[in-house]
Amino acid sequence: PVTAVAVSGNHRWLYLADRDGRVHRYGLPGLEALQVIPLSEAPITAMATLLGGISILAGDGAGVVHQLFPVRNEANEYRLQPIRQFEPIDGAIRWIFPEERRKGFLALSERATGQKWPPAPITSLALIESLTSQPSASRCMESNDCPSNSSAPQR
């Protein structure tokens, strides 16, 4: 089954991810299967494109965000290549929010931990809740020890 979806900014390619840690690249508009990229031993759980729509970010079940982008090979054909991966965070990646004006992003896990690139600490559970509209870590909710913030959604 498909676990995440992304479309290139120029609408030339469709990217589908699966539970086996692979990203599948299809040509548009005809859905021509072009490439399967083994990326992780964990399922791919989230995808997004960076500013410009060429670089793909794929988050996995081990908390790692992978960056890929198309590179021309010797035959002058595009091949999607894994370029780098970022330090893992605690829990499976559930959301990736690209910045609108720079090539940065915010990745959030199922355990309400986050990673920002370029690096910056992410400590506010209220911020994470407001971005995801999801409850934060269960330990916070169970202990009723969550930080208060008027901008966070009310439960």
Structural account:
The radius of gyration is 17 Å and the shape is globular. 9% of the residues lie in helices and 43% in strands. A 4-stranded antiparallel beta sheet has the order 1-2-3-4, with no helix packed on it. Strands 5-6-7-8 form a 4-stranded antiparallel beta sheet, with no helix packed on it. It has 2 helices and 11 strands.
Kindly list the characteristics that best describe this protein:
mainly beta, globular, disordered C terminus, 4-stranded antiparallel β-sheet, 2 helices, 11 strands, 9% helix
Widest sheet, order of strands: 1-2-3-4
- pLDDT averaged residue by residue: 80
Biggest beta-sheet profile: 4 strands, antiparallel
* DSSP summary, beta strand count: 11
Q: What is the general shape?
A: globular
Which structural class should the secondary elements be placed in? mainly beta
Low-confidence stretches: 121-126, 134-155
Determine the number of helices (DSSP H or I, runs of at least 4 residues).
Answer: 2
From the N-terminal CA to the C-terminal CA, the straight-line distance is 32 Å
String of helices and strands = EEEEEEEEEEEHH
Q: Which percent range describes the beta-strand content?
A: 35-45%
Q: Helical content, roughly?
A: under 10%
Rg estimate, integer Å: 17 Å
